[in-house]
Structure formats: structure tokens, C-alpha cells
Amino acid sequence: MNAGYFPSPWPAEDGGPQRLQTAPVQATLGLTDAEGLGAVVRRTCVSTMVVLGAPGEVFLLTHSVLRAHLGLPTTACVERIDPLSLRTIAASPRLAGGPMWPGGMALHRNGFLYVVYGRYIHRLDRHCHPLAQARLPVDEPYNSFVVLDNGLIVTKNLSQKTVAHIRVLDADTLQAVAPDVQLPEPSVARLSARGNTVYVVGLTTVWRYHWDPALNALQADPDWQWNYIGHGPQSFGWDMVLAEDEAWFMDNGLHRYRYTMRGAGVVPTPNRLLRVSLTDAHAHQATEVCGLPGGSVTNPPLVDVSRRLVVGFDSANACLRAWRMGQNGQDLTPLWAKNQWGCASHMLLYPKTGELVVNDHRRWGEEVVVLDIATGAEKARQRIGGLMQGVVFPSVGWGRDLYWCSMGCVARLFAKPRETGGR
Got the DSSP string for 53-108? Predict the structure, then answer.
């Protein structure tokens, strides 16, 4: 399904460009009633994501932040870390970036690591040695990237005021292979892709662009777009999940996040779970997540394709909930809900066991929780600490484990027998 990426269990953020946040079928935590979660936690500057390479290879992306508050350019770093202890095995030098925003990293099918951070793209070998870099044209942070099935790299600047531009890059030269695509409006959300088609969430509208090999360019699909804001008061949507024949995302993305998303909403309306058909953009649906005013998120929902379930959240109002989908994703039936639940990060699903991994930021500390996606029942919980609520990317591990990135740490969570007896 993701032919542009290295064949590992987790070569990119969200597991791939469709942003399914779903582990390979063979991967599982498989927690029993006698097991909970253990944790190894390593403090970091700002962790964005972990990706996996060949068996045993784990790569961590971090970036600087304090320089941004001084008006100075920021940098990123890639480390290969020990899969169990998280200690550094190899590290890149500081990678040029510029304007701060959590970037992205992925392993291309050619075996090299790519990083887009700030207004730079970098290629590194798997010993974290930089091989090439290129500066991107707009003096704004570029919001990660996707790799198409043909191997081309597609990235976009993050913009709330000026129109955004999509750049298509050759993986070998890091140079543009076609004229940049100027979008009709600004865009904040990260790109999504399936095959050689790119999906974009603008401030008001979603579009898609197909790669045309004859023209050597991205071409807008004139028959597929949806103005999901209309004339309403909602703010922009975040990343789009491409699940079977439907695309899912959430709106009211404007917020005042500092260390927590609780109470950070800006627009007075509830945030919504949005669905649009990939075969007919006129078939779409909007559902309020919890109905409370001031709703806001900074990340996508999760779709369990095999169980016909979708999970969304309202981070500003601390609500996490699930629905069962009817035919073609329509007629959502509420399934379960968690109130006063500090969920804000991207999520992780183990499809074989139905284990859903989410964060729950409580007072002065982040906790990682495993839920049964069908019932909402809590299976295990582990505190990893850190004052800030995580809003970034988890990853599966190489065994019965996973990696969780938060703003001040990276953690490895693993199946562990529960302690019995004593205090």
C-alpha cells in the first residue's frame, strides 16, 4: 500500500501517508489480565517521532525550541537509539532548520532517512550521517512530507495567512521536479497520500492532486473538493485519515496550546468529526465530537477499518469518544465516551487485538493508556511524566512494545507482569 517507503513495521509518522495510525496485523501488545505496562523513559529536548528501519533499528527525531523564543533559527537532530534502553547509538550533527514547527522523518524505499524540518530537507544514511540538504523556497516551516508510490517526496509549507505551496522533490537530488503547486488558500494540516495522489486540508476546503507522469506535474482533481467550513464559524481542520473509501479529519484546529490543550480552544463552537467520500466529494458528513463549546484539536481521528469504528476527541474539553460506522461510514452510532480525559496526541491501533493506545495528560504528568477500542475498557496505564501534554507521534516497537514521543521525553512502553501483593 505504501510502495515509496522502506519495508519496515513503521517507516514514517502515522505508519504511512494514509495516516491510519495502525500497526501491521502481525504486531501486537497482546496484554493479558495479568499484565500491565512497564516503561523506560529518556528525557529529551523536544521529541517528534520514532521510525523503524531494518530489524532492531530505531530512529528518533528531536528539535530545538528555545532559540525560537529569541527569534533565532532552530535546528533538528536524528539519532539511532537502542531499541530497549533508548540510549544514543549514533547521532547526526545539528541539521539546519529555521522557523520552528515539529517536522517529519521517514525511511524511503531507497534505504535513506529523510527529514523535513523548518525550511530544509535533509537526506541521511542509517548511521545518521548527513548526505545532502536543500533549502525550501518559502520562509516558513514546512509541515513534514509524504512519499508517493513512485518515490517522489512531496512537502508543503505551513501557513495561516498566505497561500500554501506544494513542492515535489526528487529523492536523489532533493531538487524540485515540477513547478510548485500554489494552493487556493493557506493550509496548516500535514499532507496525506495514497498511491500517487496527494490530499490537502486547507483552512476551509479539502482538495486532491494526482501526479501526472506525462506532464511531470501534480494536477488538481476538478471533481473532488469540499468546503467543510462553509459559512460557519469553525476554524481549520487538521490531518486527514484515508481509510478505505472515506477520508476523516477534525476541525476547530485553531488553539492556544502552551503546555496543555485543555481550555485552549479559540472558536466558541464545538469541534467536529468530518467525513468525506473519496469517490464522491458531495457525500460528506459532520458530527460534533462532544457538543461542548470551545472545542479544539491539533491531530487526526483514528479509524478501525475491520471493526467499522472511528475514534475522535476534543482536547480542549478533555473528551475522547468512539462511534460505530454504518454503511459507507454514514449513520455514526455513539459507542463509548471518556470525559476528563487528556487526549491530544496521534493514536496507535493494534488491529489484531483491538488495543488502542492514547495519551491521558493529568495534572503535571503524561500517562499512556491502552484501551479496548470496542468497549473503551482500560487495559493498562503507565505514567511517563513530563509537564507538557503530548501532541506528536507514537510508533510500534519490534516486540510487544511501543514508543511514545512527548514534548520532553521519549518512552518505550512494554508488556510487563502486574505486581501483586505488598504495598
Answer: -STT-EEEEEE--HHHHTT--EEEEEEEE-TTT--EEEE--PEEEES----EEEEB
| Diameter of the chain measured on Cα atoms | 70
Residues with Cβ within 8 Å of 399's Cβ and at least 6 positions away in sequence, in order, are 414
Residue type at 366 in one-letter notation: E
User: Where are the chain's structural domains?
Assistant: 13-414
Instruction: Output the pLDDT for position 82.
Output: 98
How far apart are alpha carbons 404 and 368 in whole angstroms?
A: 8
List the CATH code of the domain at 13-414.
2.130.10.10
User: Quick one: cell of 116?
Assistant: 523535513
* pLDDT(252) > 80: yes
Q: Could you tell me the three cell numbers for 257?
A: 496550546
Please give the backbone phi and psi of residue 28, each rounded to the nearest 5 degrees, phi first.
-160, 145
Average pLDDT rounded to a whole number, residues 159-164: 94
Strand 401-405 relative to strand 409-417: parallel, antiparallel, unpaired? antiparallel
> Contact 197/209 with Cβ under 8 angstroms?
yes
Q: Grid coordinates in use for 192?
A: 496525506
C-alpha to C-alpha distance for 319 and 321, rounded to whole angstroms: 7
